[in-house]
Design brief:
- The termini are close together.
- With about 375 residues, the protein is of the alpha/beta class.
- The strands form two sheets. It has a seven-stranded parallel beta sheet with strand order 3-2-1-4-5-6-7, with helices on both faces. A six-stranded parallel beta sheet has the order 10-9-8-11-12-13, with helices on both faces.
- Helices cover about 45% and strands about 15% of the residues.
- It is globular.
- α7 links the parallel β6 and β7.
- The protein has two domains: about 180 residues, Glycogen Phosphorylase B (Rossmann fold, 3-Layer(aba) Sandwich); about 170 residues, Rossmann fold (3-Layer(aba) Sandwich), CATH 3.40.50.2000.
- The longest helix has 17 residues.
- α9 crosses α14 and α12 packs across α15.
- The protein contains 16 helices and 13 strands.
């Protein structure tokens, strides 16, 4: 079997889909030496993303998300024979000579169209054509599968749910004093509550800030709030709210952090809080639990199926409920230990090896139906 994987986005955008692509390819290499894989990379990407004899690199001229991508990519791919093409960025070439699988990570661009630039709106506007011109769809959660069926009218039999997983370097650092590193790198002192994600409306950061202010007023804990993630859209409103709530000096915006720094932040945090209105999967809770950090998440979209009973679930619009949940994790040591143990087991139940085996099985099924 010959499978092509479109990995051009790995060069252009180092974020969630790129990480998914890298982790999946490397996990496939760990379990498979028989099938032939063609990794399509940007011509500007000189790295060898996977080093194994049955993985071959082909560098393409067509940039990811280019206005003429459909025409140019279709022409380039005609030169490479394959049975299946996997498009992790979920817009496949509509003209092709092989079967197609796409991965849909979430439909946030349909729920929050205000967040799109003109170019991204043009690209994601192809989603209706994409789901009708592919042979099968991978959804990263049952929640995303339901959204695809409900919002795009895709038949359920065309969708397979394959979960993502935390990367291996997210693990506890129990014997390491992280305070000097965090003090030097981020000027953080003392205990803190952690949020990880892009600063954008669907993450419900105003709700988190209001609950944090209420936590300080009602319970007076000596704890700060740390937000790690790149600024998205409407960030000025979030920064202004910090001032209006009198939280300047107690709330720290770190921006985008490295993977190594993120491991430090998870390990040293008292808890992770992710009160999002919408998540297609939600990796930060799994990463935090893998590091031995208890979590609070919203009880909506994919988060309950990711966290299960290993974290506290709250209604994202209920400020009081979120405030009480944070205080419980700060004050109840037995609850903390229980959730840390459950979280470790829960995070371990997700693995990239399992994701790769299920994806490989799907490749074979789709290739065999040609």
């Amino acid at each position: 079997m010959q499978v092509g994987i479109d990995a051009r986005l790995v060069y252009y955008h180092q974020a969630g889909i790129s990480r998914y692509c890298l982790q999946l390819m490397r996990a496939l290499a760990d379990i498979n030496t028989e099938d032939q894989f063609i990794i399509f990379q940007s011509r500007r990407d000189t790295r060898e993303l996977v080093s194994q004899s049955n993985f071959r690199i082909r560098r393409l001229w067509t940039p990811s998300h280019h206005p003429l991508e459909q025409a140019l990519l279709s022409l380039e791919l005609r030169l490479t024979p394959m049975q299946v093409l996997h498009s992790p960025d979920f817009i496949p070439p509509f003209r092709r000579t092989c079967r197609s699988i796409i991965t849909i990570h979430d439909l946030g661009f349909l729920l929050y169209p205000q967040s799109l630039t003109k170019s991204s709106a043009r690209y994601y506007g192809q989603i209706d054509q994409a789901v009708r011109r592919t042979d099968h769809i991978i959804a990263v959660s049952e929640s995303t599968r339901r959204d695809i069926v409900r919002m795009l009218g895709v038949p359920e039999h065309m969708i397979t749910v394959i979960y993502e997983a935390p990367r291996r370097f997210f693990h506890p650092l129990p014997d390491v004093d992280l305070r000097p590193r965090l003090r030097e790198r981020f000027k953080l002192e003392g205990d803190y509550i952690l949020f990880v994600g892009t600063i954008e409306p669907r993450k419900n950061i105003p709700g988190l800030l209001n609950a944090f202010q209420q936590l300080l007023d009602h319970y007076h804990p000596d704890v700060d709030l740390v937000l790690a993630g790149a600024p998205g859209w409407l960030t000025d409103e979030v920064y202004a709210l910090v001032g209006r709530l009198g939280l300047t000096g107690r709330v720290h915006f770190l921006g985008r952090v490295s993977d190594e720094e993120l491991v430090w932040l998870y390990n040293a945090a008292r808890m992770l809080v992710l009160p999002s209105f919408y998540e297609g999967f939600g990796l930060p809770p799994l990463e935090a639990m893998a590091c031995g950090t208890p979590v609070i998440v919203a009880n909506v979209s994919s988060l309950p199926e990711v966290v299960g009973d290993a974290g506290l679930l709250v209604e994202p619009t209920d400020t009081d409920e979120l405030t009480v949940a944070m205080w419980r994790l700060l004050s109840d040591e037995l609850l903390r230990k229980e959730l840390i143990a459950k979280g470790a087991r829960r995070a371990a139940s997700f693995s990239w090896e399992r994701a790769a085996r299920e994806t490989l099985e799907l490749y074979r099924r789709v290739a065999g139906s040609a």
